[in-house]
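EI: anyone free to look at a 754-residue chain?
SC: sure, send it
EI:
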Amino acid sequence: MAISFPRSHNPRNRRTAKRRRITARSDSGHSKPARSSAPLHRTASRQPIEERTGYVARMMRRRSSSSSRNTTVRSPYPSPPLPQPSPIRATRSRLILVWGVLLLAMVALALNLLRIQVLQASTLREQAKAQQMVFLGPIVPRRSIVDRSGTVLAIDTPVYTLYAHPLLFKNSKETIAEDLAGILDQPAEQLVSQLSQGESGIRIVDNLSEDIAKQITELQQDGLELIQAQQRLYPQQDLFANIVGYVNLDRQGQSGVEYTLENQLQQPLGAMQLSRSGDGTIIPVGLPSDFMQHQRDDLRLELTLDSRLQRATRFALKQQMEKYSAKRGAVVVMDVHDGSILSLVSEPSYDPNKYYQADMERLRNWVLTDLYEPGSTFKPINLAIALQAGTIQPEDSFFDEGAIEVGGWPIQNNDFEDTGARGDLSVPEILQYSSNVGMVRIMQTLQPGLYYGWLDRLKLNEPTGIDLPSEATGYLKSYEQFTGAIIEPATAAFGQGFSLTPIKLIQLHSMLANGGKMVVPHVVRGLTAPGGTLDWQPAIDPPRQVFSPQITQTVLTMMEQVVLEGTGEAAQIAGYRIAGKTGTAQKASSGGGYIDGARITSFVGIFPVEAPRYAVLAVVDEPQGEDAYGSTVAAPIVKSVMETLISIEQIAPSEPVTQEWNTDNRQEIPGNYAIEPENDPWVDESSSNQYSDQYTDEYTDEYSDQYTDEYSDQYTDEYSEDDSEDYLEDSPESFSEDYTEDYSEDASDASDGL
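SC: here you go
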């Protein structure tokens, strides 16, 4: 057992501990006055300094060797005191620093507020609206398009797109494919392949009808989704394609009235701004109770066209095109008084429901976009110019040599090889026989400058202003070119050397039919309500007087002789007075000159002559065959169209139709049947006279007075001689001054020499 004894008290240890305390105080920075390190014993005597120093060194070495934790050797003597900063000065510096930082922060905050509240106020306001407001943009159907009788030509219908999300399927893909196969009329294997393309968002089929969408909904299969959209449907297919046009996948009109009246066909949306909270939830505050009802109206865009006439016109055109293997053809029917188009057909056409399958050539409405030389159909216009200028009179006559040379260029009649020279011909006979030489002689009575002035007044090189897109302007040579070569007025006399569109030509002929006023062709009547009232109507330029009514009536009478005894006999309709003019022109080449063997045949008809109401133009491009002329190709088309017009508009005959009633020809008369003579009550003379008197009295009294008085008073008495002089105060003297001042003496002498 170990026994420990208390260590004896050694005064040196106390002295050593005291020195350690002094050293610690010196290291901590607190200095005190130096005191003796000797122990304070009354009985002990002060030791010499050398002995005390050696003692301290020994104690330090002993402590260093005995303790491994503290290896630092510290001096037993206190360190001299260090200089300390003043507490007041340090506090003041810290305050200045803090206030400086706060001041800079306040300035920066003020500048930032200026930027936000003033400089970027508008931008931030718009960003806030974009974050807080949502604009309601529902898919609103486009307005429908109808003809003048209400037949739908274009309408929006709801269609659906089927999407599949296999991730949500509760049945197998094979089961769902079998259910869809019978509805979509597709193989189940193909549908399974489609359903295996991903886990969600698989597009199966587009443009599903409402009936099919309903059948798919009734399957109640999870994972099938139907997305509704609007699709433009054209029920008449290719019948009105060149007029109505079509819309693309973005529901924007690309041609026809779908393009020109885009703003009228789109239904306007009200200011539907909805607020939403921070998480995107719509806040239904401030909405009108009928905000969804006023987003759709019942207005329809009504056209001036007639579906019945359009269908009959296309049939007549296609029949002649197939007969003569023509490249293309067009027919235009226009009301001569207001310019409204009743029918506009161009073939070949396309189906606007599948516009993407048509070639670019068919997408163009060449009635408006393509130029051609009108040929002999322009001769009545030239006659009106010469008569209005006063250089000829209707009873004048000109010598027809059959073939002449003008400026070194040969000009001859179309039938010169068969008939040769016709000799003296009156002005009506020149038009009746369509004599090129006779027309050259007539137009040579005008100075070239005056002639050019009239052509310029007709605005041949300007569009008609029809409300359809892409109308081309005609081509007329410059004044210098026209008057500088004597061949130019000569070729223009029979409709060559310049070009125009078919729509421009029928505008000019309508001017001859309505008393000399140039009207603007148009196909749009306006936006109509279900009751038929007009809500919006396009602005149309008022008619512009060009010729006097007396001159146009004179030319119209000459054109009637063309149908009765001239080249337009194929357009005759029993009981109706019809004026017309044939045309067979060479087809110009894009590189200059004319295409060998290519021709454009045309015929323009106006009826009824006693009260003109309609103008009909037929143009057939490149018909094949030796007998392909305006009289054989285009005139029968116009006749068929006019017969349809008579039936639709119930136009009374100009004069009673008398025909013998016998069994030989009654089968050719509509509504009659061949009956044996002895059993036929109509053979009885009294019955025949009774029917004839009834027919004559009914139509002569009712319609003759109606049409003759109405149009005669409106379009003949309206223009007195004073009015005619006012309309034509600039003709012909003003044109002579405007267009002949630069006319050279050489050109005048050359013209006189012809």
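EI: DSSP finds 27 helices and 21 strands in the chain.
SC: 👍
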